[in-house]
Amino acid sequence: MATTAFVRYGIMDKTEPFSAPDNVLQVNDEVIVRTQRGVEWGRVVLLQPQKPGKGRMAGEVLRAVTAADAEKHADIVDRQEIEELKCCRRLVKEHELPMKVVGVEHLFGGTKIIFYFLAEGRVDFRDLVKDLAKAYRTRIEMRQIGVRDEARLMGQLGPCGKELCCRTFLTALKPVPMKLAKDQKSTLDPAKISGTCGRLKCCLKFEEETYREFKRNLPRRGTKVRTRQGDGVVVDYEIITQTVEVDMGKGERQKFPLEELQFDHER
C-alpha cells in the first residue's frame, strides 16, 4: 500500500504531497524526490495513508537520502550555489542589467539552476542566460520575484519572533488590504503592521475569519444594552478581549465583559 508523504523542499520551502512506498519513511526523514522541475532534496513533514483516487501529487519520493547524497547536497549548498551566485552577480554587473540577484537554487539532479532576482520592470537577460549556460553547461532559469517572495527566500524570523509564516505553512501569498487592519482595530502605524517584506503582515489575512466570528458576538455601536449598573448605549468594543464600552449617560463611559450585558442579539 502506498503512502502520501508531505515533503518540504526547494529554496522557498514549499510543502506538497508526494507518492511514497508504505512503511519506509518517517517524519523528518530527508529524502530525494522527483518534482516537475527535476530531482530535488526534501524533508518529510507528514505521512498519511494514500486514499483512493489520491488526488494530485507533486511527484514521487525516490528514496531516503544516502551518505553519498548528503555529501553531494553539502557540496551544492556550501560551494556550488555560493560560486554560482557570485558569478551571476558579476555577469549582471558586466551586462549593466537593472536587476538585483538575491538567490540561487541548484537542483539536486543538476539539470537546472534557478536564479531569483528583483527588478522594477522587465529585463532583457538573454545574453546573461547564454553566459551562465556556457559557464555551467546546464539549463538556466531566471525568475523575477517581488519583495514578499524575497522575504520568504531570505528571511527567517518575523516581528513576532517565530519563523516566517510564508516559510512554514502559507502556500500562497495573497494581497492584504489595509481594510483588514482597520476591521481588526489594529494600529495603522506601518512600522507595526508591516512584515519583514515591508508589506502588510500576512497574519491580518488568515486571522480575518477569527476576527469576523468574534465580532459577530458583539453588539453594534448604538445598541441599547442593560448592565449591572443600569442601561446604556454601546459606543465601542474590543474584539479580542470581548469587552464593550457603554455610554451610561451624562458623559460617563464604562467597559463591561460581553457576558455581563443584556441586549437584542439580532444583527
SSE topology:
Blueprint: E1 3-9, E2 14-20, E3 30-34, E4 39-49, E5 59-64, H1 67-94, E6 100-106, E7 112-118, H2 126-136, E8 139-144, H3 147-154, H4 165-168, H5 178-183, H6 190-193, H7 203-206, H8 208-216, E9 224-227, E10 230-238, E11 243-249, E12 252-257
Parallel strand pairs: 2-5, 7-8
Antiparallel strand pairs: 1-2, 1-4, 3-4, 3-5, 6-7, 9-10, 10-11, 11-12
Which keywords apply here?
five-stranded mixed barrel; 267 residues; four-stranded antiparallel sheet; alpha+beta; elongated
What would you note in describing this structure?
The protein has 267 residues and is α+β, with helices and mostly antiparallel strands. The chain has helices spanning 67-94, 126-136, 147-154, 165-168, 178-183, 190-193, 203-206, 208-216; strands at 3-9, 14-20, 30-34, 39-49, 59-64, 100-106, 112-118, 139-144, 224-227, 230-238, 243-249, 252-257. The strands form three sheets. It has a five-stranded mixed beta barrel. The radius of gyration is 26 Å and the shape is elongated.
- Chain-averaged pLDDT: 87
Assess the beta-strand content as a share of residues.
25-35%
Instruction: Detail the poorly predicted runs.
Output: none
Task: Please work out how many helical segments DSSP would assign.
Answer: 8
Q: Name the helix and strand elements from N-terminus to C-terminus, one letter apiece.
A: EEEEEHEEHEHHHHHHEEEE
Structural class: alpha+beta
Radius of gyration from CA coordinates: 26 Å
State the shape: elongated
Number of strands: 12
Oligomer: single chain
Estimate the helix proportion, in percent.
25-40%
**Could you give the order of strands across the largest sheet?**
1-2-5-3-4
Largest sheet: 5 strands, mixed, barrel
Span of the ends, CA to CA: 52 Å
